[in-house]
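I need you to check the entry underneath: sequence plus fold tokens. Let me know what the token row says about the fold.

>
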Amino acid sequence: MRTWFITGTSRGLGREIASAALAAGDAVVATARRPEEAARALPDADGRLLTAAVDITDATQVRRAVRAAVDRFGGIDVLVNNAGRGLLGAVEEVTDAEARAVFDTNVFGTLTVTREVLPMLRRQGAGTVVFISSVGGFTQGPGWGAYGATKAAIEAVGESLSAEVAPLGIGVLIVEPGIFRTDFLDDTSLHKAERTIDAYRPTAGNTRAWVRDHNHVQPGDAAKAAAAILTVVDAEKRPLRLQLGADCVARVEAKLERVAADLDQWRELAVATAHDDTGGDATAVPGYW
């Protein structure tokens, strides 16, 4: 029996992952700002469920929940960094305070939880850290710049962490969901920039309208996404990134094609920027990982 420590389990994908892990016979520490909602939504499963009040921006609450997990189940095997918030608005529309609020939760809160759990995984010499990112962490559209920046930051953290902890027996999985039918587009999860600028009505403004019209009719099934995550966590050979949803796959493929085309077009200029004493030999550059 593994123990999962999952943030943001009161609803949406976090709740579905917790439910799937419990159904698989594992133990779950389900954390949320309102743990009573998680407790109502999830079965007790013969004592394999522990709920805890955690605002991931509060290091004391995080530390207390991790200690409770150890006291109850003896350790943590899988950390799922799922808790987060959204922010919709053109880059110019988003205020500094609005941007900082979403970074505080999605980036600094996630780092707080990860730092608290990693020492235990290092001592065990095993475990998995899952980061719930977004297709927006890899490719962006109008209105999602600030939110996507937080997910891109987490993807960078996850990629670096993967290289750092692989020799220690710890795995990392970055999940990039597309558009799934959860409460993410509700006002309680997705904050919108208070300021609107008329010039961005055809771009970010259209995104605002799309959000209004597509809430709770998104094509992705969150329960199937949770099952897919469990499948990959259990896989002998796991990817670093897991794309979920046909829309996500299409958008990732389109960006890879654009990046490859730009690289091919400007390759000669790019490699010509080396110092003459290197001879332009790319292999002379030490790797970063």
About this structure: The mean pLDDT is 90.
